[in-house]
Amino acid sequence: AQTVTQSQPEMSVQEAETVTLSCTYDTSESDYYLFWYKQPPSRQMILVIRQEAYKQQNATENRFSVNFQKAAKSFSLKISDSQLGDAAMYFCAYPGGNYQLIWGAGTKLIIKP
Amino acid sequence: NAGVTQTPKFQVLKTGQSMTLQCAQDMNHEYMSWYRQDPGMGLRLIHYSVGAGITDQGEVPNGYNVSRSTTEDFPLRLLSAAPSQTSVYFCASSSLMTSGRWGTDTQYFGPGTRLTVL
Question: Nearest residue on chain B to A106, judged by CA atoms?
Answer without folding.
Answer: B42
